Amino acid sequence: MKRDGASRAGSDARRQASGCVVDPWDTGFVDLGGSQGLLGQAEGRTAAVVVAWLKEQTPAFRAGFEHVAIDPAGVYAKAVRTPGLLPNAALVVDHFHLVKLANDAVTQVRRRVTWELKDRRGGKADPEWANRRRLRTARERLSDKSFVRMWNAMIDEDPSDRILMAYIAKEELRRLLGTVEAGGDPHLARHRLHRFFA
């Protein structure tokens, strides 16, 4: 869970560096925007672990949350939605994890198209495999030459254009998320995001 001052919190799983434990995942409770840093850590990655840690805190502490930023794990959403636990908190997923999911989708589409076209995995000689990192890279981080090389290779290799459609969708999602970070209307962004996924 990440907490911004007294208003935002989030949860993120961290793999333990050493030691032999039954459940190797911890849940960290972190102050996102304030000065408190790590608020706490609990062993496990379940809703029960999150709920138990939050219930150990004072009601005033829990009432101070306005936003809870989580990675897209259902167990964290379930915990945060527990009635009365965080009465003033809105649940949000951070931009990093949304973009990661979009990049994962591009990779899945690229792999699926390769299997359908070649009946095998991609390799060094395959343009869609050779451009896999460019497909996951933000457009503004690619040189024009690199972008054109990737774009033209995908047009030539994928007659269905599904790989480029996935790339464009990922970039449109990034652009939409960027408007919120730049101070855009969050309600409009939420509406567009809903339409994007619908």
Automatic annotation (TrEMBL):
Superkingdom, natural source: Bacteria
Domain Transposase IS204/IS1001/IS1096/IS1165 DDE: 36-179
Name recorded for this polypeptide: Transposase
Biological source species: Tomitella fengzijianii
